[in-house]
Amino acid sequence: MSSATEAAFALNKALEGTEEGVGEWFEITQERVNAFADATLDHQFIHVDPERAKATPFGGPIAHGFLTLSLLVHLDNSIPKAPDRFAGAVMGVNVGLDRVRFINPVPVGSRVRARSVLSEVEMKGDALQTKRTLTVEIEGSDKPAMVAEWLTRTFYG
Question: Between β-strands 146-156 and 127-138, what pairing exists: parallel, antiparallel or unpaired?
Answer without folding.
Answer: antiparallel
